[in-house]
Amino acid sequence: MRLAEFDYPLPPELIAQEPAPERDGARLLVAERARPTRHASVRDLPAVLRAGDVLVVNDTRVIAARVRGRRPTGGRLELLFVRPLAGGTWEVLVRGGPRPGESVHLPDATGTWTVSRGDGLWELAIETREPVVDWLERVGEVPLPPYIRRPDGPTAQDRARYQTVYAREKGSVAAPTAGLHFTPALLERLQARGIERAEVVLHVGPGTFRPVQVDDVRAHTVPPEPYQLPVETADAVQRARQRQGRVVAVGTTTTRVLETRAAAARAVTAGEGQTSLVVVPGFSFGVVDALVTNFHLPRSSLLLLVAAFAGRERILAAYAEAVGHRYRFYSYGDAMLIL
Predict the structure, then answer these.
(1) What residues have CB less than 8 Å from 70, skipping those under 6 apart?
(2) What are the tens digits of pLDDT across the range 150-178?
(3) For residue 199, what are the β-bridge partners?
(4) Pairwise CA distance, residues 249 & 255, whole Å
(5) How far is CA 315 from CA 197, 246, 306, 307, in A?
């Protein structure tokens, strides 16, 4: 399929700039096979899902990865710390044009650019008085996506709301946004309904959100991202299968972990590693039965994944209905449940 087949019109005012007043108060478009779409709220999930289902979430934690710096000449730099490398260096996405061997002035830290990897990615040797992740939490900004506009930078509300309530493992530069809708009370109600919860980790890198730049979507690639799938989660999926429950993935990142580990017998195995899995129409899903997800950008790899799961025409029709009903789109927007 061609990339142009995954486009849709979106009025700019429907791009959510703020989260819903309450996390689980976001709207929920329910799309079931062979049934008309339904309009509900995220807090209705316990009534929509079934006892025996297992809800799998990504409990990665977003780090305050964006830092402002300056070149020796005084030129401004914007850095996004992507992931640690060996020997005290970090992979950094930078805007501002540094040079190899050039120093960078950072808040309470010193750094030197070593190697350019192209497309704005660099290796940065950095020295801080504390672990770099702790330093980032002190001096960095929440790495909001560019379509959320903050003239004065992210707010205290962003630091709280651009993070899931169950976030645990530090390492992402973007939130697994489908999980932003869940509250402790909602998770308790799901458990009381007989819906088990299990966790995976996928540390989201910038590659997941980079534009697809190939015409043939099958040729799209993403850089590897680290993941973990614990034994407890593999066991929870197996228990759901035994009781004929559904595996409900919260988000595209969770889906990619589960499908990376999926075996031929519609099971998952525990493990960890790096995944570069790209899911496009024609992909054969081995384990995920239902998907909770936000509304994604046109022509994006995330839209390709949900179209692969539900069918391109069905997804584009659902998106058109969401636009018509004035749903809010993207990271701080409303949600969709695909059954």
Answers:
(1) 76, 77, 104, 105
(2) 999 999 999 999 999 999 999 999 999 99
(3) 57
(4) 6
(5) 26, 21, 7, 6
The reply to whether 176 and 321 lie within a common domain is yes
Please indicate, yes or no, whether residues 250 and 286 belong to a single structural domain of this protein: yes
Count of domains observed in the chain: 2
CATH of the domain at 269: 3.40.1780.10
266: pLDDT confidence band, cut at 50, 70 and 90? low
In a domain, 147, yes or no: no
pLDDT one-digit tens code per residue, 9-63 = 999 999 999 999 999 999 999 999 888 999 999 999 999 999 999 999 999 999 9
Report pLDDT digits (tens) over 229-254: 999 999 999 999 999 999 999 999 99
Query: Up-side HSE of residue 237: CA atoms within 13 Å toward CB?
Result: 31
Partners of 263 in the β-ladder: 267
- Domain membership of residue 263 as a residue range: 3-61+164-338
Both 294 and 213 in one domain: the answer is: yes
Exposure letters 71-90 (e unless 16+ CB within 10 A, then b): beeeeebebbbbbeeeeebb
